[in-house]
Each structure stands twice: as structure tokens, then as C-alpha cells.
Design brief:
The protein is mostly helical. Helices cover 49% and strands 0% of the residues.
Length: 110
């Protein structure tokens, strides 16, 4: 898969995840969202930036349950639940939040 953003070609895996974390910026996230048919809102950005911060802090990705609990702790009950996260990322909240955040594919995701 080829991703063209502002004249550069960040390398992607065969499943559309960035190969290098350092290739990520908000323009890359926007293009990845377009490719994955996700229209980004402030709510999406909140979760995308949160999972990036989590990964950079802990140096690993959580599983889906731990991800939801971390969102709950950070943002409260209205956002820290699977219904809310699936509304933002219907095909898999953790997988697509990570993909748009320029992170590796979570090991627990298919």
C-alpha cells in the first residue's frame, strides 16, 4: 500500500500501519483516516492522541479491555466504554486508533 502525504511516501505494512513511528504527523493521520473511510472529529483526535501518548509512555500497546479502561480513567464514563469507542472506530477501536496514530498493529488485533 502506498501513502502519499505532502510529497512524501511514508512506508506502510501490508495492513496499512506505518512502518516507522517517526513518519507520523497529523497530515499522515488525516490521510490514513481517508483511506480507512473515517471522518475525523475532535473526538477521534482525542483518542488518537491519547493512544499515542500511552504508547510513548509505556512502550507497549494495551489489549482492547485495558485500552477501554485507560480511556475511562483519562476521560470518564461517557467515553471510557466500548459503545463510544465503536461509534468512533466501528471496525475496531484499538486497531484503528493505533493505525491512525501511526503506531504498530496491536498484537491482540486480527
Amino acid at each position: 500500500m502506498v501513502l502519499m502525504v505532502a510529497g512524501s511516501l511514508p512506508e506502510l505494512t501490508d495492513q496499512g500501519f506505518l512502518v516507522r513511528l517517526t513518519d507520523w504527523d497529523e497530515d499522515v493521520a488525516g490521510r490514513l483516516a481517508e483511506i480507512n473511510h473515517i471522518e475525523l472529529s475532535d473526538e477521534h483526535w482525542e483518542i488518537i492522541l491519547f493512544i499515542r501518548e500511552y504508547y510513548l509512555l509505556y512502550k507497549h500497546l494495551p489489549n482492547a479491555r485495558v485500552f477501554t479502561k485507560a480511556v475511562l480513567k483519562q476521560f470518564g464514563e461517557s467515553k471510557g466504554n466500548s459503545r463510544y469507542l465503536h461509534r468512533l472506530f466501528p471496525d475496531g477501536p484499538l486497531k484503528y486508533a493505533c493505525k491512525l496514530a501511526g503506531l504498530p498493529k496491536p498484537p491482540t488485533c486480527l
